[in-house]
Amino acid sequence: METTTLIEQLPEVTAVGVAIKAILILAIISALAGFGTYLERKVLAFMQRRLGPMHVGPYGLLQIAADGIKLFTKEDIVPQHANAFIFKIAPVITAATAFIALAAVPVFPDFTIPEFVPVLGGTFVPSIASDVNVGILFVLGMMAAGLYGPLLAGMAQANKWGIIGAARTAIQFLSYEVITGLSILAPIMIVGSLSLVDFNEAQSGGITSWLIWQQPVAFILFLIAGFAETNRTPFDLLEHEAEVISGYATEYSGMRWGMFFIGEYANMITISILAAVVFLGGYNDFGFIAGWIMILLKVAFFFFLMLWVRAAWPHVRPDQLMWLCWKVLMPIAVINVVITGIVIV
């Protein structure tokens, strides 16, 4: 059975097509971040027997627009004793690294702009804006660089709660970057490549060829580390909404706070796509279901899973987080890599 490949190396892949893809990523992912807030509030409300947003528009749908207007028009405050330059640049780092990471991820399937469209008609738009041969390494590296956003944001404030949030950022992100790398190392050893294209093609034989069956431990470790890297419950220690303050974002307001927020949702989508491509067959067809529909369903499932865990799971303390990382997940990840190497050899 013929399968849908992740991306085809065609001569039509031009700078214009790549630029269009980059603009689509920025526009659509930013919009999804806003819609994701509405979806998250509705899912949490349903699970906790509440209504969620209901008063702004039908079923609260216009709440997204109301929140956007609030973020763009709210007063932008820079604390008097803060380092103003670093305070202002930190949210930009968080949002920028999140979108740069998406450049090497197959966000949407390939498509060609119809011929009747003026100027751009016939332009081939690839699924990946930058199809580098070390795609996984690039994505994980850019997500790790996003650590500097919350870290600098907390340190730039003349506020002890912001500094505590920055310290939590450092210990959490640095710890779970190691788990992410070790968990993904075993699948890399099996496929023999760092390219997401190769991962997709290695699983083109149907559901039985999905790497989740060969690497279930790596899949679970990757998901846990993904929750920690995206600052999702139960590992949301960077701001920890159960506390009165808001960690590294304590003194932020308006669109600067919104950029942290957009970066978090963009990273959630990135982790969801990586999990789908690396472990669950990627863009390949599933019976009569087209590959592009399958990838959307997989990403939607992982996104919903993050919301579900937030509704059902309690927060953990920083010491519990470190104990889980270094004393439980790290040894399991190393043992999994060793066993995979022995089996391959």
From TrEMBL:
<keyword id="KW-1278">Translocase</keyword>
<feature type="transmembrane region" description="Helical">
    <location>
        <begin position="173"/>
        <end position="195"/>
    </location>
</feature>
<keyword id="KW-0472">Membrane</keyword>
<protein>
    <recommendedName>
        <fullName>NADH-quinone oxidoreductase subunit H</fullName>
        <ecNumber>7.1.1.-</ecNumber>
    </recommendedName>
</protein>
<comment type="function">
    <text>NDH-1 shuttles electrons from NADH, via FMN and iron-sulfur (Fe-S) centers, to quinones in the respiratory chain. The immediate electron acceptor for the enzyme in this species is believed to be ubiquinone. Couples the redox reaction to proton translocation (for every two electrons transferred, four hydrogen ions are translocated across the cytoplasmic membrane), and thus conserves the redox energy in a proton gradient. This subunit may bind ubiquinone.</text>
</comment>
<feature type="transmembrane region" description="Helical">
    <location>
        <begin position="289"/>
        <end position="309"/>
    </location>
</feature>
<feature type="transmembrane region" description="Helical">
    <location>
        <begin position="207"/>
        <end position="228"/>
    </location>
</feature>
<keyword id="KW-0520">NAD</keyword>
<feature type="transmembrane region" description="Helical">
    <location>
        <begin position="321"/>
        <end position="344"/>
    </location>
</feature>
<feature type="transmembrane region" description="Helical">
    <location>
        <begin position="128"/>
        <end position="152"/>
    </location>
</feature>
<keyword id="KW-0830">Ubiquinone</keyword>
<keyword id="KW-1003">Cell membrane</keyword>
<feature type="transmembrane region" description="Helical">
    <location>
        <begin position="85"/>
        <end position="108"/>
    </location>
</feature>
<dbReference type="InterPro" id="IPR018086">
    <property type="entry name" value="NADH_UbQ_OxRdtase_su1_CS"/>
</dbReference>
<dbReference type="GO" id="GO:0050136">
    <property type="term" value="F:NADH dehydrogenase (quinone) (non-electrogenic) activity"/>
</dbReference>
<keyword id="KW-1133">Transmembrane helix</keyword>
<dbReference type="Pfam" id="PF00146">
    <property type="entry name" value="NADHdh"/>
</dbReference>
<keyword id="KW-0560">Oxidoreductase</keyword>
<feature type="transmembrane region" description="Helical">
    <location>
        <begin position="265"/>
        <end position="283"/>
    </location>
</feature>
<keyword id="KW-0874">Quinone</keyword>
<keyword id="KW-0812">Transmembrane</keyword>
<feature type="transmembrane region" description="Helical">
    <location>
        <begin position="18"/>
        <end position="39"/>
    </location>
</feature>
<comment type="similarity">
    <text>Belongs to the complex I subunit 1 family.</text>
</comment>
<comment type="subunit">
    <text>NDH-1 is composed of 14 different subunits. Subunits NuoA, H, J, K, L, M, N constitute the membrane sector of the complex.</text>
</comment>
<dbReference type="InterPro" id="IPR001694">
    <property type="entry name" value="NADH_UbQ_OxRdtase_su1/FPO"/>
</dbReference>
